[in-house]
Amino acid sequence: AFIPKHVACVSTASGYNTIYIISKNFQFKTYINNTLTYVISSQSGNGASDTPFCSTQLADHLYINRKDTRPIVTSTTTVAPSMLANFESTNGAQDWRCSSLRAYGDFLIAMNMAEGSSDYHTRVRFSDLTAAGQIPGSWDASDPTTSAGFIDLVDMGTPIVDGLPLGNKFIIYSSDETYMMDFVGGTFIMNTRKLFDDAGIVNLNCVVEAERKHFVMSADDIYVHDGVTKKSIVDSRIRKYLFNSIDTGNLTSCFVHH
Questions:
Q1: Where are the beta strands (DSSP E) in 47-95?
Q2: SS3 label, residue 188
Q3: CB atoms < 10 A from the CB of 187, how many?
Q4: Of 98, 143, 8, which is closest to residue 62 (Cα–Cα)?
Q5: Using an 8 Å Cβ cutoff, are 82 and 44 in contact?
Q6: Looking at residue 33, what is its pLDDT?
Q7: Residue of 54, 38, 95 lying closest to 203 (CA atoms)
Q8: What pLDDT score does 13 carry?
């Protein structure tokens, strides 16, 4: 009955790797030091879904997200998954959800937001700065004592799919556009600009950093970029063979890994 859908690996302070295995209905297993342990998540029972997960690590915590429910966080030392606290409106009446959740410096970045009954498909939210060993204390953009905030990419024509750091920048992908965000501090905290208007990403988890570049799978190409210029890394025959072979009705199963 446990159908794996996502795997994440972290290194513990003791030097052992911990592998987290997440099922289609948001249940957890951990594999630590040759032992497989079943851990019931607070989100278990939400119902099975083929919606893809993403995961990210910040300040000794692992964050696991699926866009149809609230993110899960677990300490890499205690392995006790729970719903991410503070990820909500200021009055606590509206739970937030996001399509992708990633770490960037000392921030968590949430992209393609659902806030209560409202959807903001091109919204990027960033948390307050995260202290060592803690989760973000606030996502409240109206509180001037925090660094939390949000940016609406109003000229982005399609919803945000995913994002990932590249050096000291953060790259944001829709299905056919790419934006760059970087930390500037001061009043605005973050700054964004369009990087490419003719290249995006096919699915969540279809970008990886290697050799100080992003390798990206889009709906019709596989390309690499350094935050300035991009180029395809498949020639015409390989590209035609690859994309003619893909089940286009199952694109949510696509991913890349380094």
A1: 53-58, 61-66, 72-75, 82-83
A2: coil
A3: 7
A4: 8
A5: no
A6: 81
A7: 54
A8: 64
Question: Nearest-CA neighbor of 83 among 64, 98, 94, 70?
Answer: 70
Entry pTM: 0.93
User: What are the Cα distances from residue 72, in Å, to 62, 64, 178, 248?
Assistant: 8, 5, 27, 30
Of the two residues 129 and 185, the one the predictor is more confident about is 129
Q: What distances in angstroms separate CA 150 from CA 111, 124, 165, 177, 244, one per listed residue?
A: 10, 5, 17, 19, 39
Residue 165 · residue 210 · CB < 8 Å: no
Tell me, what's the pLDDT at 256?
94
- What's the token pair of residue 98? 């996001």
Do residues 79 and 13 lie in contact, with contact meaning Cβ atoms separated by under 8 Å? no
Report the C-alpha gap between 204 and 56 in whole angstroms. 13
For residue 209, the SS3 value is strand
Confirm if 181 and 124 have CB atoms less than 8 A apart.
yes
Beta strands 169-174 and 118-126 are: unpaired
DSSP class of residue 249?
G
Q: Which of 28-42, 139-153, 163-177 has the lowest mean pLDDT?
A: 28-42
Q: Collect all residues with Cβ–Cβ distance below 8 Å to 42 and sequence separation of at least 6.
A: 72, 81, 82, 83
Reported as a single tens digit per residue, the pLDDT across 48-86 is 788 999 999 999 899 999 998 889 998 877 767 888 999
Contacting residues for 87 by C-beta, under 8 A, at least 6 apart = 70, 71, 95, 96, 110, 139
What digits encode the pLDDT tens for the residues 84-116? 999 986 555 568 999 999 999 999 999 999 998
Which residue do the tokens 């060592």 mark?
132
Q: Determine the average pLDDT of the residues in 188-214.
A: 96
